[in-house]
Amino acid sequence: MSARVLRWARKRQGLDPHTTTLTSRRIYILPTAIGLIFALTAFAMLLGSMNYNNNLSFVLTFMLVALGFVAMHQCQRNLVGLDVSFAGVEPVHATRPLEFRIAVHNRSKNRRYNVQVYDGRIVSDIRDIPAGESRVFRLEYPTRQRGRMAVPRFGIRSNFPFEMFRAWSWVHMDLEALVWPAQASDVPPPPAALTATGHRQHDARGEEDFAGLRGYSDGDSPRHVAWKAYARSGELLSKQFAGADTSSQWFDFDTLDSTDTERRLSILTRWVVDAELLQRDYGLRLPGHEFPPAHGDAQRQACLRALALFDEKRGS
């Protein structure tokens, strides 16, 4: 039944953009256990009032019923008009939690109370959203294996006021994140580095032979930023060196002894992470794909992405 309801909601609403405004027609509401007890109590009071024909009892009963209707209306209006948007997700290694960030913006002049983002048993914290402000909710998903992880939908809900009703809306954004292979804990030593002398310019080693300045690029070490030049001109530049010894390593999938594909990918992942921490050039060879030696965030991201999508790369 739950699966059918979710398929019906997806067909009714369609695919949502990465910024979606909640309208009244897409917000659902049902009484909670507290609301059902409240309704039964009010019905019992109504029967007692009719039995004894007590006017004060009628007044109290109708006041409680009116309070219930006001609470139902307010609960539904607490979500109407909220802007829900995807605020990003960072790749992680397998076995670490993957955190999807969902931003909710309140454009109205009224504060919104007890708002929560959820996906089944995965829930965010419950927060209030002041008028004109935004709050970022986090959904943490456990990861067990590398590859793509999809979140086809999530919900946003509230039980304000009195927790007698629960209003919610489903959002279908088809979010996706990347899970890198887990880092192997016991790895063989990486292959020996290959050294070349004075054959190219390099910005990470050979500091004894300054060759000039070049534009700053992502991944450059802060130690090589020309801070004095930045203070004078306000432009970020990196120091460049030439004629120095440079070394690089090749990490090759086919040369590993293990017959387990996932074990090989975990070893390569560990080597990539360690080489990046040491600021060493490294290249990666996978069946059908090769990354020339380099270092920096772009190199790390490209290599880890290829390792995470290893089966897809081979299939292509």
From TrEMBL:
Q: Give TM regions.
A: 27-50, 56-72
Report keywords, A-Z.
Membrane, Transmembrane, Transmembrane helix
What is the official name of this protein in its record? Uncharacterized protein
